[in-house]
Structures are given as C-alpha cells and as structure tokens.
Design brief:
With about 150 residues, the protein is mostly beta strands. About 15% of the residues lie in helices and about 40% in strands.
C-alpha cells in the first residue's frame, strides 16, 4: 500500500460520521461533510457485499438492503443513525482480499467481503480536500486524482 494511501487512511481516524446514506444496497459514510459537499471531509462508499455488526451480532448487510420494499429499506436505513457523531477508530485493509474494515467507536464494525474476485470496485474512499479517490477491489488498490 502506498504512503499516500496510508496517510489518507490515517487522516480519517477520529473523524465523526456526519451522515450515512443507503443507496440501493451500497452504503456511504460521510465524515466531516454531507452529500454534495465537495470541498471538505471524506466519504467511504461500500459496494455490495458488506455487513454491519456490533460486538454481539450482525445488524444488517447489503443483501438485506437489496429489498424493493420502500418501508423495509427505510427501516434498514434507520439502523445506521446510531453511527451519527461517532468517530472512526480504525480502518483496516485485508492484505489478500483488499476487504475494508471500519471500526467505529470500538463497538461497531462495517466490513466488505469478496463475493466475486472479478469485481471492479469493492469500496472507495474520497478525500474531498485533496481531490483524491482510493478504489479497492480484490485485485488492487488504486488512487485517482479527481480534480485540482
């Protein structure tokens, strides 16, 4: 993993979750920003497959969020409100799979996991200040400069 990626991951630590969006069965965490903010903060976008758990049980996952039922989707979205204002304590990238694990407030974890090794994108982290996007998939992690 490059030094640039390590620095961005380090800069995310202890930043609070300000907003969470469940877009279909993709999950987006906004840190120090909200949707539409492009000048500050970070976002962590998890493509399926992922799960959300505490120290006791799996709370929900991307498969449950795949529902067509709007009320059910809303109920699943509401589960993420417990993340608001809580800091990111640890970000870990699994060496072989490049799965991303997000530890929040030492009790809650969100984790991607490979279901198809040919997936083009498992997750992405956007640093809006630097204009950089980090994209992870089962084969590689790459950095893209989005804007100046």
């Amino acid at each position: 993993m490059s030094e640039e990626i390590q620095k961005i991951l380090q800069s995310i630590l202890n930043r609070p979750v300000q907003f969470v969006r469940l877009a279909g069965n993709s999950l987006i965490l906004y840190l120090d920003c909200e949707p539409g903010d492009l000048k500050e903060g970070y976002s962590i976008w998890l493509e399926p497959t992922w799960h959300f758990r505490n120290n006791i049980e799996v709370i929900t996952g991307s498969r449950a969020a795949q529902t067509e039922d709007e009320q059910e989707h809303f109920k699943i979205s509401e589960l993420f409100k417990q993340l608001f204002s809580k800091p990111i304590k640890r970000l870990t990238i699994e060496p072989i799979t490049n799965d991303l694990q997000i530890e929040i407030d030492e009790e809650i974890n969100i984790r991607t996991f490979v279901s198809d090794p040919s997936d083009e994108e498992s997750w992405q982290i956007r640093d809006y200040i630097k204009g950089i996007r980090i994209i992870g998939n089962p084969r590689t992690i790459q950095t893209i400069k989005e804007f100046s």
